[in-house]
From TrEMBL:
Keyword rRNA-binding among record annotations: no
GO terms of molecular function: cytokine activity; granulocyte colony-stimulating factor receptor binding; growth factor activity
Name of encoding gene: Mgf
Leader sequence residues: 1-25
Principal place of residence: secreted
Keywords, comma-separated and alphabetical: Disulfide bond, Glycoprotein, Growth factor, Secreted, Signal
PANTHER family: GRANULOCYTE COLONY-STIMULATING FACTOR
Subcellular compartments: Secreted
Full protein name: MGF factor
C-alpha cells in the first residue's frame, strides 16, 4: 500500500501555521513571552493530543480485534520481532536542547509514518484513520521544521518518501503483535514529545 503523498502533506503543514515572525538565533530563554512561539507551542500541543487520541483509537481496535491488550503478556513474542523505539533522549535530558529535541521528534515521526503502513495492512477497515494519522504526523513534522527555521536553528530536511525498511513478519500472529508494539512505542514517543513541548511553554 502506498504512503500518502508526503509533499502535499508537508505543504499543508507549512500552510497551516505559517507565516511566523522570524526569531533568528534568539535564545530560548528569551522566547518565553514571544507570542508567535507560544502560539506555535499551544497549537502543536493540541495537534499532538489529537494524534495521541487517534493512536489510542487504533490501540483499542487491535485490542478488540485480536485480543492483544496487555504489553507484559507479549514480551516473549516481542523478542522475535524487529520493532524498535525511536529515540527521544534529547527531549528529557536535564540539559534540554530544543534544537536536538525538535530534530529527534521529526526523525521519529518519519520512522513511525512509515511503520504505520504495517498497521494499515493489519487493519484494512481502518485505513482511513491510519491515513489521517499519517497526514497529521507529516503536518506536525512540517510545523516543527518551519518553527526551527524561524528560530534560526539548524534543520535537516528528510526525504518525503520513507527510506527506512518496513518491518517484516514471519506470520500473521507476529504481524498482529508487531502492530501492537508499533502503536505502543508510538504512543510513548508522543507522550515524551508532548511533555517536551509543554516544558517549553514554562521556560
Amino acid at each position: 500500500a502506498a504512503v500518502p503523498a508526503g509533499g502535499l502533506a508537508l505543504l499543508l503543514g507549512v500552510l497551516l501555521w505559517a507565516p511566523w515572525r522570524a526569531l533568528h538565533g534568539a535564545p530560548l530563554t528569551e522566547l518565553s513571552g514571544d507570542q508567535d512561539f507560544q502560539l506555535f507551542l499551544q497549537r502543536n500541543l493540541e495537534f499532538t493530543r489529537k494524534i495521541r487520541g487517534d493512536v489510542a483509537a487504533l490501540q483499542h481496535v487491535v485490542c478488540d480485534t485480536f485480543q492483544l491488550c496487555k504489553e507484559d503478556e507479549l514480551q516473549l513474542v516481542r523478542q522475535d520481532l524487529d520493532i524498535t523505539q525511536a529515540p527521544l533522549e534529547q527531549c528529557h535530558r536535564r540539559t534540554f536542547q530544543a534544537e536536538t529535541c525538535f530534530s529527534q521528534i521529526r526523525a521519529g515521526l518519519r520512522i513511525y509514518h512509515g511503520s504505520l503502513a504495517a498497521i494499515r495492512a493489519l487493519l484494512p477497515r481502518h485505513a482511513g484513520l491510519v491515513e489521517t494519522l499519517q497526514l497529521d504526523m507529516a503536518n506536525l513534522s512540517s510545523n516543527i521544521q518551519q518553527q526551527m527555521e524561524d528560530l534560526g536553528l539548524a534543520t535537516v530536511t528528510y526525504p518525503t518518501e520513507n527510506q527506512d525498511p518496513l518491518p517484516t513478519f514471519s506470520s500473521g500472529f507476529h504481524h498482529q503483535v508487531g502492530g501492537f508494539f508499533i502503536l505502543a512505542n508510538f504512543q510513548r514517543f508522543l507522550e515524551t514529545a508532548y511533555r517536551a513541548l509543554r516544558h517549553l511553554t514554562s521556560l
